[in-house]
Design brief:
Elements: E1 4-11, H1 14-29, E2 33-37, H2 42-48, H3 54-61, E3 65-70, H4 76-81, H5 97-104, E4 109-115, E5 129-135, E6 145-146, H6 151-158, E7 176-177, H7 183-199, E8 204-209, H8 217-229, E9 236-241, H9 242-251, E10 258-261, H10 263-275, E11 284-288, E12 293-297, H11 314-326, H12 330-346, H13 360-371
Parallel strand pairs: 1-2, 1-3, 3-12, 5-10, 8-9, 8-10
Antiparallel strand pairs: 4-5, 4-11, 6-7, 11-12
Bound molecules: adenosine-5'-triphosphate.
Length: 372
C-alpha cells in the first residue's frame, strides 16, 4: 500500500497533547505514513490575523485526510485584543477554522460513533454501539440570520398566514434564523447512513427529526428517508421525533443502531450519545466529504488542561482508528482499537477523568506497548 499522507493539525491546547498519542500509536503500528504539518489555531490568529491561513488551504487541497486536535475560540473583543498590535483595529474577524473547513471541503457528513469501551467506568452501559450521522452543512447552521429584520424579508413574511402575531413588531425587536434543508443535502446524509449500515451489517436506521412541527424541513428529510429505504430492503427504517428520541436514548441506549439527523438535532443527539459512553475525553468523530476527510476528537482545546498531562487521549486514538479504516488500513485499525480496549479494561493506566492518576503520554505509551 502506498505511503499515507496525513495533514497533521494539532491546533491549540490539549489538541497538541493528544495528537502526540496518535503519533505514538501510528509509529507502534508500523503504518507507512507521513505527517504533513498544516498550520491552524490561535497562534496563527494572533500572528497573522487568520486561524487558518491560505497556505493551509493550499496544503490541504493536496492531501486526502487530516488528523485534527482542537482549536481555541474566544469572543470577538478578546480575540481582537490578542491580535499582533499592527493587525488590531483593521476589522479582522475571527472565523472558526473547523466550520470553514467543513464548508470549503464540503464535509457534509459528520460521523460520530458512540461505542462503549467495555469496562470504561464512565459508561452508562457496556453494550452501547451507536453510529450517529449528522448533516454538517445546512439547517440552522447555514448562517442565514437576520437582526434587525430587513424590509424586503418583512414583505415576504407578511404574505404568510403565521406571521400575523409578529406583524406589529419593530425591525430591531425581531431576530430571524432560517432553517435550510435541501433535497441534495438530505439525500447525501441519508445515503451515507444507509450505505454505512449496509457495509457494517447493521439492522436499523433511525431518522431523528421533528416533522410534526417542522413539516417542510424535517418533513423533507423523512420523505426522502422513506424513498431511499426502498433500496435497502434488509434494513429497517424507523422515524423518531427528536424529543421522544432523547428520552429513548437515555432509557435504552443499547437498543439504538444507526441514527441519522439534520445539523442541529444531530449535534445535540450525538453529544448525548457520547456522554453515555464516556463523554468528551473518549468520543471520536469524522467529517467526511467526497475527496477529503478530517478526523478529530469531539472535545475542544480545554485550556484548563493544556500542558498539565491530564487530557484523555482516547477520543483522539478512537479518531485515529476511524482514519485508519477510512484509508483502508483495517487491520491496523483493529489492532489499535484492541489496544485501547485492553488498556481501558485493565483499568490501571488511565487519565483522571476516568478515575485514573496517569498522564496523557503515559496512557499513550501503554496503548503503544499493547500494540506490541
Ligand atoms: P472549546 O471552546 O475549545 O471547545 P471548551 O472549554 O468549551 O473549549 P472543551 O475543551 O471540549 O470545551 O472541554 C470542556 C471541559 O471538558 C474541559 O475544560 C475539560 O475539563 C474537559 N475535557 C475536555 N476534553 C477532555 C479530555 N480529552 N480529557 C479530559 N477532560 C477533557
Amino acid at each position: 500500500m502506498a505511503r499515507h499522507r496525513i495533514a497533521w493539525m494539532p491546533g491549540d491546547g490539549i489538541g497538541r497533547d493528544v495528537i502526540e498519542a496518535a503519533r505514538l500509536a501510528l509509529d507502534a503500528l508500523g503504518v507507512d505514513y507521513e505527517a504533513v504539518p498544516v498550520d491552524v489555531g490561535w497562534e496563527c490568529w494572533c500572528r497573522e490575523g487568520d486561524p487558518l491561513p491560505p497556505r493551509s488551504f493550499t496544503a490541504l487541497r493536496e492531501l486526502p485526510v487530516a488528523l485534527f486536535g482542537a482549536i481555541t475560540s474566544k469572543p470577538a473583543a478578546e480575540a481582537e485584543a490578542e491580535l499582533a498590535p499592527e493587525l488590531r483595529g483593521r476589522g479582522i474577524v475571527y472565523r472558526s477554522p473547523i466550520v470553514r473547513l467543513r464548508q470549503e471541503f464540503r464535509l457534509a457528513v459528520n460521523l460520530r460513533p458512540a461505542k462503549a469501551i467495555p469496562g470504561n467506568p464512565l459508561n452508562a452501559r457496556d453494550d452501547v454501539d451507536i453510529l450517529v450521522l449528522r448533516e454538517n452543512t445546512e439547517d440552522l447552521y447555514a448562517g442565514l440570520e437576520y437582526h434587525p429584520l430587513p424590509d424586503g424579508l418583512r414583505t415576504v413574511l407578511e404574505e404568510h398566514p403565521r406571521w400575523a402575531p409578529f406583524a406589529e413588531l419593530a425591525a430591531e425587536d425581531v431576530a430571524l434564523s432560517l432553517r435550510v434543508t435541501t433535497r441534495a443535502g438530505c439525500t447525501r446524509i441519508l445515503r451515507a447512513a444507509f450505505d454505512l449500515a449496509r457495509q457494517r451489517g447493521r439492522r436499523r436506521v433511525t431518522v431523528v427529526e421533528k416533522p410534526n412541527v417542522l413539516r417542510e424541513t424535517s418533513g423533507m428529510m423523512v420523505r426522502i428517508a422513506r424513498e431511499l429505504a426502498a433500496e435497502y430492503p434488509e434494513l429497517e427504517l424507523r422515524e423518531a421525533n427528536v424529543d421522544a428520541f432523547a428520552m429513548d436514548l437515555v432509557r435504552a441506549p443499547q437498543d439504538q443502531d444507526v441514527v441519522v439527523s439534520s445539523n442541529l438535532f444531530g449535534d445535540i443527539v450525538s453529544d448525548l450519545a457520547a456522554q453515555l459512553v464516556g463523554g468528551l475525553g473518549c468520543a471520536p468523530s469524522a467529517n467526511l466529504g467526497a475527496d477529503f476527510a478530517l478526523f478529530e476528537p469531539i472535545h475542544g482545546s480545554a485550556p484548563d488542561l493544556a500542558g498539565t498531562g491530564r487530557a484523555n487521549p482516547i477520543g483522539m486514538l478512537a479518531s485515529t482508528v476511524m482514519l485508519l479504516e477510512h484509508v483502508g488500513e483495517s487491520e491496523a485499525a483493529q489492532r489499535l482499537e484492541r489496544a485501547v480496549h485492553e488498556t481501558v479494561a485493565a483499568g490501571e493506566i488511565l487519565t483522571p477523568d476516568m478515575g485514573g492518576t496517569h498522564t496523557t503520554s503515559r496512557v499513550a505509551a501503554e496503548v503503544a506497548r499493547r500494540i506490541g
